[in-house]
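HUMAN: Mind sharing a backbone?

ASSISTANT:
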Amino acid sequence: MIIVGISAYYHDAAACLVIDGEIIAAAQEERFTRRKHDADFPGNAINYCLSEAGIDAAAVDYFCFYDKPFLKFERILETYLAFAPAGLATFRRSAPTWVTEKLFQKHAIAKALRALLGKHVDWESRLLFSEHHLSHAASAFFPSPFENAAILTMDGVGEWTTTSLAVGAGNDLTVQREIRFPHSLGLLYSAVTYHTGFEVNGGEYKVMGLAPYGSPTYADTIRSHLIDVQEDGSFHLNMDYFDYCSGSTMTNPAFDQIFGGPPRRAEGALTQRDMDLAASIQVVIEDIVLKLAREAARSTGERNLCLAGGVALNCVANGKLLREGPFERLWIQPAAGDAGGAIGAALGAYHLHRHQPRVIRSGRDGMNGALLGPHYSQAEIVGRLDALGCIYTIHPEAEMIDIAARALADGDVIGWHQGRMEFGPRALGARSILADPRSPSMQRKLNLKVKNRESFRPFAPSVLREHVSEWFDLDTDSPYMLLVAEVAPERRCPLSAGDDRLRGLAQLDVQRSTIPAVTHIDHSARIQTVDQETNPLYHALIEAFLKLTGCPILVNTSFNMRDEPIVSTPDDAFRCFMQTDIDLLIVGNAMARKSAQTAQTISSAHAEHAR
């Protein structure tokens, strides 16, 4: 049975191919179009998935969309009516798009499939629709390594649901409780994201990274004015402070008043207020997630927990849940946001719609390390690099690993493009920028000269699974960079209590550990564990670095520049390499040094990027 899952039209469009319950391929549309968070119909991603498996489109049994447009329109219509006349202008602006495009999405998707795959098949008869949070729940449970589990999904909003609790057993999944719009943890966090000057549905992770620079001085204000939380984790937002139901912004003047002023302008200077707001919302969200998890454990009796939805990408909250929560084991869908809905839609169609059995791999999940995207043969790599005028050398694998490890130990920054591309928002050692975590200057260098992003942003460590507990307060798998833990006490540097730099962004100048490039100012790190079975080449590189330096860790950040998607093709990798201060590019067995490139190649790369 062949099923293609689709998410599209809101943000992070994606496609996933499932054959007999196994995830074969998955990719986000943005990686092909180079438009970050591309929401358009994922034609490129669908074509990739089918070609990866060598399948003719006519052989697909079902295409399953990740939510139900009619229910979403019902919510939007009822919301505008409830807040009338305040929301009339906004509704008038959005109604034409709904009536002409989104409301009749079954016809729109069938039309897109005909244009993409041909008119010889009645595609409409093969279309299924899943509810949004059911797709999230299916993406969390069915690929997990658990026979039974409680499932929490938390995001902004789907059709009506913003938070749900479900129970999974074998090939079945039952939703038990829901919290509905407008009461939403995701939208509450997005409101603070908006107020601190970052982009909604794109900047929430920046707020999480900013939080350790502040103090939670506004946490009580949030609890007393914005959200009423019960002991079981259920919550209710006070809509007097929000504008997202009827207006075009997240917050309103009442919100501004209780937090001492209007939202920060994008790219404006960060103030202590912004940092304290970030710290405050982070603490509040963590507390609510813990309450929800405790109630989930109490009401279901389950010992395993699966998570999905955009809030599940808050790896600080996940780390706290692992340490302080009631569950013995935790598994988080690596593409927890809307892109992962394509996986849930496909697996939900297979197990819930067609009642097909589920195969659970002993001790391993069904995501293949999230390495589900396109890959390139050495011949393809050479052909593409030649066409770009790249000057490179070819090395056998063992020699390539040795050269790369030595370059990293010498302080070089490497663009690393190997094997199948990752699915989801994290680079996991296939499309990564790598560096030495021991360097005190590396965090600043990567932020300012390579990534061209805010200086406060932390970087993640990739650590050999067999050594993780020697360096961090963690002794479990974290293959998808979704858990935060503290650096081990013996690896930390002593701090002077009277140091004036222990406040605000000045904290960046204080070395916190022997691996400062991956240690956040609160001694935390967003950890990726690397095992030999899932990614043998990446594991071998870190192992070679360990032999040279005694350190089993590399800095790992996504291979892209600010406001661009992670690179997909060798061409993307070369252009990013040429636009940044990356020293060495390694694509397959081809190695290119920046210093070896000709002036003509550099000029051509700049011109191509400008286009």
